[in-house]
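Input sequence (241 aa), recorded before submission:
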Amino acid sequence: MGERFRPRTPRDRLIVALDVPTSGGAADLVRVLGEEVGFYKIGMQLAFAGGLALVPDLVKAGKRVFLDMKLLDIDNTVASGVKSIAGLGVTLTTIHAYPQAMRAAVSARPADGSLGLLAVTVLTSFDDADLAAAGYAAGAAELVLRRAKDARAAGMDGIVCSAREAAKVRAAVGPDMLLVTPGIRPAGAAADDQKRVMTAAQAIGAGADCLVVGRPIVAAGDPLAAARAMLDEIAAAETWR
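Predicted structure, token format:
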């Protein structure tokens, strides 16, 4: 499963979220970050602002792309979406961790293993109160663990979860699934709208493989310096498996 996507260097671990409103702004940020960053996430904001057109340029430049579209629909639509995403040349994409949707996605995954499928468990902006308001009886930690086990059973390549749940998820799914943790903040930084956050060192210690970092780099006065600082923090915290 996710073993083929395992990071080998600190640079492999850092995924910078291009959460900016225009494709031009994203391209400018990629130029600023240069060779320091080799992995980028494109989410809904940028995708709906023309950001998908950046994917071929990023891939041609040797960058890896995590297309975070959080697919959830009827089986045929999810499978068709995965096939279309695979054609873009991206490395990772996301599916909401509903068993039926995950099985549909796995059925459409390229046979060459070029596209990794990540199961989104519970958004890092949700806490137990948010889940209760949405009608869930389980709290975040319980629901994340349940969905992670479902993802493994469905044959997904990895899990997206808060670093706060990473240790329990790693214990539940074993060493071969990729764990991607958003909501990463430098020590002492504001949490913004995230509710379940950790530092890079804490996330790596908990078993995370790749760390998604957005505003601490994208909104920094000096994004390149912020990226270098995050890479230094990752390098200092690594415990390679």
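Checked by second reader. The beta strands are 14-17, 39-42, 64-71, 92-96, 116-120, 158-160, 178-181, 210-213.
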